[in-house]
Design goal:
mainly alpha; Na+/H+ antiporter like fold; globular; membrane; about 250 residues; about 85% helix
């Protein structure tokens, strides 16, 4: 059974991009298959963050203390470059309010495990990437509401406290619970469950994507190319600016 789960986990990990694309098509033409997930989005996000907490190790936190300069530069760059770049795109292209808020939310999100995977593929400093991901995630309950309040407040009323509580429930609490369970179970048992955690997290991501497409498919299709272009510019711009900025600070 575990061999089958291992093979399935490996297949999903290698082909997640294509699977997401298939789910998008499925959800657009058969939205009923994913509408059930919409009311449970918060729970599903919590499950994903719990899985992330289960994969963290004590060394991820030790590195934050051992290399505070690099972690500080990475987190600062993340929470300045990405939201300000999103805000600049919103102003430059005069986006409608709902899209403007969406772009700023995108720019203010903490980095995820996907960034660590990309760092590994690029032969980057993966331990540092994991530490920055951990730190930015722990800072999310404060940074996300603050950034959204500061940059998107002109389009939508933002309650800093209410949003902080929501982010804490969705991100921080499941993450800490995952860390506690990891500590109680021990490294050996968690390692044996790692393939299952990959499948559970992938399932959560896929049904959330499917739910979003199910209820917003027509609107996304209407502005699809523009949205894709904006997200592409935002990500590529963040990569380029981050590369040069962090490169300059590395020698300070």
């Amino acid at each position: 059974m575990m061999d089958l789960i291992g093979k399935l986990s490996g297949f999903v990990g290698k082909n997640l991009t294509y699977i997401v694309f298939l789910v998008v098509i499925w959800a657009y033409f058969m939205p009923g298959a994913f509408l059930w997930a919409v009311p449970h989005t918060v729970l599903l996000l919590g499950v994903i963050m719990f899985g992330m907490g289960m994969t963290l190790h004590a060394k991820d936190f030790r590195l934050i203390l051992q290399r505070p300069k690099e972690v500080l530069i990475g987190c600062t760059a993340h929470y300045t470059i990405m939201p300000l770049l999103a805000y600049g795109l919103v102003l430059a292209f005069q986006m409608p309010p709902e899209m403007a808020v969406g772009m700023i939310l995108l720019g203010s999100c903490p980095s995820g495990t996907a960034s660590n995977v990309m760092g590994f593929l690029a032969k980057a400093d993966v331990p540092l990437s994991v530490s920055i991901t951990t730190c930015s995630t722990l800072l999310a309950p404060i940074m996300m509401p603050f950034i959204v309040w500061g940059l998107a407040g002109q389009w939508v009323e933002v309650s800093f406290f209410a949003m902080a509580m929501t982010v804490m429930k969705v991100i921080l609490v499941p993450l800490v619970l995952g860390l506690i369970v990891h500590r109680i179970m021990g490294e050996k048992h968690v390692a044996s469950l790692s393939k299952v955690l990959v499948l559970v997290s992938a399932f959560g991501v896929l049904v959330i994507v499917g739910g979003v497409i199910a209820i917003n498919g027509a609107k996304i299709l209407e502005m699809g190319f523009f949205i894709i272009l904006m997200v592409l510019i935002h990500n590529l711009g963040g990569f380029l600016i981050g590369y040069f900025v962090t490169g300059k600070f590395a020698y300070v």
